[in-house]
Write a structure and sequence with these properties.
19 helices, 2 strands, two-stranded antiparallel sheet, mainly alpha, 507 residues
């Protein structure tokens, strides 16, 4: 008689298939670490190759899970559904693009250390776990795995004082935000005796503590932790210095993968609690007012301060703050519209593509020590590098929200969903803030096409096949998503459809 239950074996194979993207990336990072200390293996070639291959394999594995029934793993601590598949594809795609644009940049800056690629892979693993759970402890562990890897990457230019300062600032303030989030999780557990966000409201209602101060403060602390990681006002002061001090590909990684991970995790949390009695009545109204003011201040401060910037990295950093405000507008509208958070997912994807492309151009323009990235250095660039100027112009038009680019359609869908939810005044203010932002984006185009070069301006860039591939794909996607957005919106909507997660496969 067999001692192994066939049903258990069947469940294990299903579980293993669902965990494949995570396992492939993890073992790829482990193999890359071994190659780092194996000189005969040519780590300068094999380490980035292994990481790109493992990320590509994990991306294919995530794509294969599209349309599969949603499942809950490890007693509900990990969720495999359309949302997690969409998030994983976005993170892994961003990681591959950042890795490709890093090759030439690291050689130019004398930063060829192969631990760089391993840290990117481990950070993506944290992002994937963070967007695939509703358990507060798993969210915290994934957040720390993601954050500690990025802390190291921000300070990767060890001989640069700005990079060291950026890493220390980010580490101290990021740790404080993580502590606030963890404290909020502890208070939520104390009021409901569960760490599963989907069960907190039910448990609190059963115990009679649904609207207790402990529960409300816990929710507020968790929200503050998320708002800090997304650089929403008034928790934004760390972002410009960190973005400016980090290597350009890491700045691109933070403004795309990291921001997308935190926002998608916040979307999953908001979607879980929005229909529960946890956010009803005066509590729901109070939290709506908090998000409303945070969205307005984030859009306003981000755009107004970006107007004053002459350094391209700092300008894009404050621009990223403004885009956080737009995403908060869509986040509030998600629970009140028929399409839910589809507009937010679409905006996150478009935002990642635009920023990857823009920072990809900066990696080719940057001189030693990230010099040559002042606005004046772009003067006359169109005469020397017409294709590079064209790509940057496309990304600037898209970020400004001008047709026929993807940025226009993304903002349209986002603001339309907010109008459907009844936040008309906030949409009007968002459109005005977006009009302010168009000025500093168009100013970049004016410098490239309408100014004569002065002295030794940026433009002595070397050709990079990997960076050129990244720019070509992102430019094509900006136009494709701008001209034909309905197919992408339908695909995203199909991603999110399907049955709810079933009982846990692993007890």
């Amino acid at each position: 008689m067999s001692l192994i239950n066939p049903a258990y074996l069947a469940m294990s194979s299903v579980q293993l298939g669902l965990l494949t993207p995570y396992l492939v990336l993890f073992f790829g990072a482990c193999l890359a670490l071994v190659l780092v200390v194996t000189p005969s293996a040519r780590p300068d070639i094999s380490v980035p190759g292994v990481m790109v291959a493992s990320m590509a394999a994990a991306l294919v594995g995530s794509a294969c899970q599209v349309g599969a029934p949603a499942q809950a793993l490890f007693n509900g601590m990990l969720l495999s559904d359309g949302f997690s598949a969409f998030a994983n594809i976005l993170f892994l795609g961003s990681g591959i693009a950042v890795t490709l644009m890093s090759f030439r940049y690291l050689k130019t800056q004398d930063l060829v250390f192969n631990e760089y690629y391993v840290l990117i892979g481990l950070s993506i693993l944290g992002m994937m776990l963070m967007a695939s759970t509703l358990n507060l402890v798993v969210i915290f562990i994934a957040l720390e795995l993601m954050s500690f890897s990025v802390y190291c990457l921000v300070g990767f230019r060890r001989a640069d004082r700005r990079s060291n300062e950026a890493a220390i600032k980010y580490y101290i303030l990021g740790s404080a935000a993580s502590a606030i989030l963890l404290y909020g999780a502890a208070m939520l557990y104390g009021s409901s005796l569960t760490l599963d966000i989907g069960q907190i409201a039910d448990r609190a209602a059963q115990s009679g503590a649904l609207f207790s101060p402990l529960l409300v403060i816990g929710l507020l602390c968790v929200l503050i932790g998320f708002l800090f990681k997304t650089a929403a006002v008034p928790f934004h002061a760390w972002m410009p210095d960190v973005y400016d001090g980090a290597p350009i590909p890491i700045t691109a990684f933070m403004t795309t993968g990291l921001k997308a991970a935190v926002f998608l995790a916040l979307v999953r949390v908001m979607a879980s609690v929005s229909s529960a009695p946890l956010l009803t009545g005066s509590v729901a109204t109070s939290f709506h007012h908090i998000l409303w003011m945070a969205a307005l201040l984030t859009m306003l401060v981000g755009n107004l301060v970006a107007l004053q910037q002459t350094n391209l990295k700092r300008m894009l950093a404050y621009s990223s703050i403004a885009h956080t405000g737009y995403l908060l507008v869509g986040l509030m509208a998600g629970s009140a519209t028929i399409d839910g958070y589809t507009a937010v997912y679409f905006y996150v994807m478009v935002y990642a593509i635009m920023n990857l492309g823009a920072f990809g151009v900066l990696t080719l323009l940057a001189l030693k020590g990230d010099a040559g990235l002042e606005l004046g250095d772009l003067a006359g660039l169109a005469q020397r590098r017409p294709w590079l100027s064209f790509a940057l112009a496309v990304f600037m038009f898209s970020m400004a929200g001008l047709p026929p680019t993807a940025g226009f359609t993304a903002k349209y869908f986002l603001f339309y969903s907010a109008v459907q939810s009844g936040d008309v005044l906030l949409v009007v203010l968002a459109v005005l803030c977006s009009a302010i932002g168009a000025y500093y984006y168009l100013r970049v185009i004016v410098q490239m096409y309408m100014k004569e070069p002065v002295g030794q301006a940026a433009g002595t860039t070397r050709f990079s096949y990997s960076a050129a591939l990244t720019l070509g794909v992102t430019v094509a996607l900006v136009f494709q998503l701008g001209l034909f957005p309905s197919a992408a919106m339908k695909t995203i909507s199909d991603f999110m459809k399907g049955p709810q997660p079933t009982t846990a496969l692993v007890k």
